[in-house]
């Protein structure tokens, strides 16, 4: 795609890429950085460019509720593959409409960070220095990495081609599991900085301003012979090509429940509790439940119900985020902005599954009894495989 070279007279906007496998805690890390930035400078403006693998914008809506200055969303693909051409326009819109002090690019769980880093560097050159790649941060889920690292080429690449590894969810896994995970990262034969989060919290001075070596190493395309067509990823590790299409590591179902009324909260919770994490990696949804049922909506790690939205409305709207057997419901307040991907739908859900699991789960969902409306009318459920 042709680009127009421009010259900027202002300081470049630093860009931090945050990657990590599905459910590792990338959005939580970002949300925990915002109050730190605001405490240091109340006028600080952080913008987010978020890539969702499915077709429902969930994490960006969570981010919008967390006082991020501006959010751009790239849906339905991988930002390092079929959506890479949209990166420049998305960054330009954030720059024009928000004028942020920093942009965080949060990738889908399947993205290759090296490819994205090279594209950011190319855009920085083509815009005459409007942007500067600060560094690449990879979030590793200690509790679950031992399972998916064995099968996911992407997870290993994300851990290898980065400037900083954040070990997340180690508290529940214990020190022994953390040591095993650290040993596995050591097997990648790289010398990387790493830090353990505190339930998703890491100091902003650790994440930002790292002046990453990967950013410098990948400063020029072709310097390392990198090729990327969705099937080959090479050069960055010495010119080797990996015959691998990383988007085939997961399968994605798009789910919509239509009809008058609200979602049956009891059946929804039973569905979340019974879903095996070795078959399903992520569930993201936006849904409505009745105000009466809202008191029964519970997060997996809580003994009490989730905070309820405004009681002024007969139904309550929630964002559901499920990963590896744990989930949270976040209320969307009355009058809160909602992304067009889920607007006015009783339930819009994306399920991201392991390979070869989508056909079985599509049949299970279509058989009924898992996701239904509350009451005699069960609603019209549509399940579509999109990847």
Short characterization:
The chain is α/β, with parallel strands linked by helices and 387 residues long.
What does this molecule look like?
This protein has helices at residues 26-40, 59-64, 87-97, 113-126, 142-151, 153-160, 170-173, 175-186, 204-207, 213-217, 265-274, 291-294, 358-366; strands at residues 13-20, 46-51, 70-74, 102-106, 131-141, 164-168, 193-196, 250-258, 280-290, 315-323, 326-331, 347-354, 380-385. Strands 3-2-4-1-5-6-7 form a seven-stranded parallel β-sheet, with helices on both faces. Strands 11-10-9-12-8-13 form a six-stranded antiparallel β-sheet. The longest helix has 15 residues, at 26-40. It is α/β, with parallel strands linked by helices and 387 residues long. Strand 2, helix 2 and strand 3 (70-74) form a beta-alpha-beta unit. The chain folds into two domains: 13-244, Rossmann fold (3-Layer(aba) Sandwich), CATH 3.40.50.300; 248-385, Hypothetical Protein Yjia, Chain: A,domain 2, CATH 3.30.1220. Residues 14-186 form the CobW/HypB/UreG nucleotide-binding domain. This is CobW/HypB/UreG, nucleotide-binding domain-containing protein. It comes from Podospora appendiculata. Residues 218-243 are annotated as: Disordered.
């Amino acid at each position: 795609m042709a680009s127009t070279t421009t010259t900027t007279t202002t300081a470049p906007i630093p860009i931090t890429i945050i990657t990590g496998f599905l459910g590792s805690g990338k959005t939580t890390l970002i949300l925990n950085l915002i109050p730190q930035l605001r405490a240091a400078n109340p006028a600080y403006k952080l913008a987010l460019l978020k890539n969702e693998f499915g077709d429902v914008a969930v994490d960006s809506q969570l981010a919008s509720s967390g006082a991020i200055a501006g959010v751009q969303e790239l849906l339905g693909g991988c930002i390092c593959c079929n959506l890479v051409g949209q990166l420049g326009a998305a960054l330009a819109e954030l720059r024009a409409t928000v004028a942020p002090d920093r942009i965080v690019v949060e990738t889908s769980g399947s993205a290759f960070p090296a490819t994205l880093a090279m594209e950011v560097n190319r855009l920085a050159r083509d815009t005459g220095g409007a942007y500067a790649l600060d560094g690449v941060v990879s979030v590793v889920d200690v509790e679950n990495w031992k399972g998916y690292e064995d099968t996911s080429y992407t997870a290993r690449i994300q851990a290898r081609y980065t400037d900083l590894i954040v070990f997340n969810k180690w508290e529940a896994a214990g020190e022994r599991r953390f040591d095993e995970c650290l040993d596995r990262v050591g097997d990648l034969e790289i010398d990387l900085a790493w830090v353990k989060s505190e339930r998703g919290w890491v100091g902003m001075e650790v994440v930002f301003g790292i002046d990453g070596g990967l950013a410098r190493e990948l400063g020029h395309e072709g310097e390392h012979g990198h090729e990327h067509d969705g099937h080959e990823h090479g050069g960055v590790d010495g010119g080797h090509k990996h015959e691998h299409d990383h988007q085939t590591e997961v399968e994605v179902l798009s789910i919509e429940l239509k009809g008058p009324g609200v979602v049956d909260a009891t059946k929804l919770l039973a569905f979340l509790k019974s879903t095996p994490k070795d078959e399903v990696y992520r569930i993201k949804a936006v849904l409505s439940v009745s105000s009466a049922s809202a008191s029964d909506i519970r997060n997996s790690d809580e003994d009490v119900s989730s905070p309820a939205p405004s009681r002024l409305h007969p139904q309550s709207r929630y964002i559901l985020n499920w990963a590896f057997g744990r989930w949270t419901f976040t209320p969307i307040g009355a009058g809160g902005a909602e992304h067009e991907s889920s607007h006015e739908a009783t339930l819009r859900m994306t399920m991201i599954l392991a390979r070869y699991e989508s056909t079985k789960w599509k049949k299970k969902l279509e058989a009924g009894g898992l996701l239904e409306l509350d009451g005699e009318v069960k609603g019209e459920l549509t399940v579509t495989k999109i990847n």
